[in-house]
Amino acid sequence: MEAQQILSGFCPKSPSIPIVKHPFSLKFNSLPSSCPSIQSLNLEFPSGAFHPTSTAHKEVCSSSPRRIWCSRSNSTAEAKEEGHEVRSQVTVRKKKLAVFVSGGGSNFRSIHEASKWGSLHGDVHVLVTNKSECGGAEYARNNGIPVILFPKAKDGSNGLSPSDLVNTLRRFEVDFILLAGYLKLIPVELIRAYERSILNIHPSLLPAFGGKGYYGMKVHKAVVASGARFSGPTIHFVDEHFDTGRILAQRVVPVLANDTAEELAARVLKEEHQLYVEVVEALCEERIIWREDGVPLIQSKENPKEFH
Ligand code: GRF
């Protein structure tokens, strides 16, 4: 799709990116400006983990910006006459990510591995879970990532309140929140504090087979039972309901004639791991742009005039 046809008049908030004039510009999320210390309750710092009061501060002030090629209109009259575009390099600050999980955390793992191997211009700084013993939380502890319990346990003994969670994520200077198999509804306080900055992955082609009650194997069972010939993961921004936020990316897999729900789940999960990493790469490189009607699009890295 041509940028000119679909975009207009946004103004970036990030000072690290030059303002792009017509025909299009990008919508960025606000960035933290200070390096405060963390003094939160209910945080687990596994042995060998960095402590945010020290290391996070260092990371904020020294995180290496990545050079990214961007296309933009050339403002010189000469170039305009010739209809040229200038490909210029811009620098993008490394992003801080919070991942929310309730289960095994295989999507969390693939995102963490991509950041470790450098394909992702972001780091997972904190893991949030409602199940402190789940596979995802264990993986976080083994990899020196602090674990936060949210929401509060029923007896109130453990876990953060919504406003404490927002404050804690702010103190970690989290830029983006990635839900990866987190089964609790996200409180409105968090959605307001992280507008257009929370993603979820769902294992069906939304809006089909989504909403309350559609989670885990239930989704795949319903897909197989429906006779649908295709399924696949959807990544969407999160609003205050289950699975209804704006769709950002999807990938299609076939549903085979003799598929079990488990076989379909495995096929979809394989795609989830790739798709989530690709989308988070775009997020961290500030390649998500918002169409005028509120639909988010991903700007292609190879050809910045293409959006999908
Ligand atoms: C995935 O299928 C995801 O789409 C859904 O929950 C599952 C989480 O799997 N939201 P894992 O914990 O990442 O392995």
Describe the structure.
With 308 residues, the protein is an alpha/beta fold. The protein has a single domain (43-68, 95-288), classed as Formyl transferase, N-terminal domain (Rossmann fold), CATH 3.40.50. The protein has nine helices and 14 strands. Helix 4 links the parallel strand 4 and strand 5 (122-129). The longest helix is centred in the C-terminal third of the chain and has 24 residues, at 261-284. It starts with a helix and ends in a 10-residue tail after the last strand. The structure holds 5-O-phosphono-beta-D-ribofuranosylamine. 5-O-phosphono-beta-D-ribofuranosylamine (GRF) binds at residues 101, 103-108, 180-181, 201-203, 233, 269, 272.
Explain briefly what this protein structure is.
Helices cover 29% and strands 20% of the residues.
Please outline the helices and strands.
Layout: H1 3-6, E1 43-44, H2 52-62, E2 66-73, H3 77-82, E3 85-92, E4 95-101, H4 106-116, E5 122-129, H5 135-142, E6 147-149, H6 162-171, E7 176-179, H7 188-193, E8 198-202, H8 217-226, E9 230-231, E10 234-237, E11 247-250, E12 253-254, H9 261-284, E13 288-290, E14 296-298
Parallel strand pairs: 4-5, 4-7, 5-6, 7-8
Antiparallel strand pairs: 1-6, 2-3, 8-10, 9-12, 10-11, 13-14
Helix pairs in contact: 4-9, 8-9
The structure holds 5-O-phosphono-beta-D-ribofuranosylamine.
5-O-phosphono-beta-D-ribofuranosylamine (GRF) binds at residues 101, 103-108, 180-181, 201-203, 233, 269, 272.
Keywords: Chloroplast, Plastid, Purine biosynthesis, Transferase, Transit peptide
Pfam families: Formyl_trans_N (PF00551)
EC number: 2.1.2.2
